[in-house]
Write a structure and sequence with these properties.
Radius of gyration: 21 Å
Number of strands: 2
Number of domains: 2
Number of helices: 9
Shape: elongated
Largest sheet: 2 strands, antiparallel
Helix content: 40-55%
Structural class: mainly alpha
Distance between the termini: 22 Å
């Protein structure tokens, strides 16, 4: 953290053209250099979502063309979710967060491509992603939640598209005992999946509220962090 604060202070000392405006983040504070367009403080923990706040600020102050340079695909997905309308919901973001980003783990041997293909085969799960996107961003699911059960069925399809099992426990038994799959090649247990989804919902909630410079997030420990 001290290194970033040091670098931020050095950038702020640079000579900037009067018609330009450079905003430098240091902790929750934002330092403006050049054409003064004040920007409120921001309490985001991740730079991924903080970038969105900067884009919003630029738009509010008359920017017509914005370029974001990044090597992090999470930033691309987050910006895609707010591209057409800064408050518009994009269910694709939930898929990205739920099955592997820089803060939530991916399933062993199952990447986003596998889940995308399975989503096309099991389109009913779309309702679950849309529900989570439109309702409260931090909805706390349980084993009986319809949204969880649909996502659970999607996970089953990812591991075996021919399976009729509706829950991962049945799919685990089927794949291990009848199809001789190794333990590391079968779905997680139901409780493990639920905790994974909790973590994904929490991260998705942060992404959902990324347009707010001051986020008020629930306690992460309630979401298995």
């Amino acid at each position: 953290m001290e290194l970033f604060e040091f670098l931020s202070s050095k950038v702020a000392d640079c000579s900037i053209s009067p018609e330009c405006s450079v905003h430098i983040t240091a902790g929750e504070h934002v330092t403006c250099v050049g054409r003064l367009i004040e920007m409120s403080s921001c309490n985001h923990e991740e730079a991924d979502t903080r970038i969105v706040v900067h884009v919003k600020h630029a738009l509010e102050n008359g920017a017509k063309s914005i370029q974001v340079r990044t090597v992090d695909t999470d930033v691309v997905v987050a910006l895609t979710g707010v591209f057409h309308d800064l408050s518009q919901i994009n269910a694709d973001l939930d898929l990205w967060v739920a099955f592997g980003c820089d803060t939530t783990s991916a399933f062993g041997g199952k990447g986003k491509k596998s889940f995308w293909q399975s989503w096309n085969a099991y389109e009913e799960v779309t309702d679950a992603f849309v529900h989570l996107a439109i309702s409260h961003p931090f909805e706390h699911l349980d084993l009986h939640s319809e949204s969880f059960q649909r996502i659970e069925r999607l996970v089953v399809v990812v591991y075996d598209k021919t399976s009729n099992a509706k829950n991962v426990c049945s799919a685990r038994m089927e794949l291990f005992s009848q199809k001789s799959q190794a333990v590391d090649k079968i779905p997680p247990t139901q409780n493990a999946l639920l905790q994974h989804i909790w973590r994904a919902v929490y991260q998705a909630g942060i992404s959902r509220t990324c347009m707010l410079s001051q986020q008020t997030n629930p306690c992460s420990t309630a979401y298995a962090w």
